[in-house]
Amino acid sequence: MAEQHNHTHDSHENHGSFKSYLIGYLISIVLTIIPLVVVLNDMFDKTVNMIIILIMAILQFIVQLFFFMHVREGEPGKPKWNVMALILGLLLVLTIVVGSIWIMMNNTVAH
């Protein structure tokens, strides 16, 4: 006798809706076009251009996390841990990068 299997999923896998993906895609396109227009039209000097590019990159990263990687979705209580682990990882990377740059800038050898 063949056993019937129920294929219902209770695994709480949440996937974004078409609307969520479309909104994330449109925001990503806008965040890509802004620095492109600023740089191609020579609107500001190099320092301001770099700041604008970095800000848009950070915003793009946030959009990717929340709209496409679904950081906030999942079981109740779990998204908090996902976001907290992400923040901890970013702080560690930032500390290593800034510390490395600081050491390299202040590593003068007197001859």
UniProtKB/TrEMBL annotation:
It comes from the Bacteria. The chain crosses the membrane at residues 21-41, 47-69, 81-105. Keywords: Cell membrane, Electron transport, Membrane, Oxidoreductase, Transmembrane, Transmembrane helix, Transport. It is a multi-pass membrane protein. The keyword Protein transport does not apply. It is found in: Cell membrane. The keyword Transmembrane helix applies. InterPro entries: Cyt_c_oxidase_su4_prok, Cyt_o_ubiqinol_oxidase_su4, Cytochrome_c_oxidase_bac_sub4. Belongs to the cytochrome c oxidase bacterial subunit 4 family. This is Cytochrome o ubiquinol oxidase subunit IV.
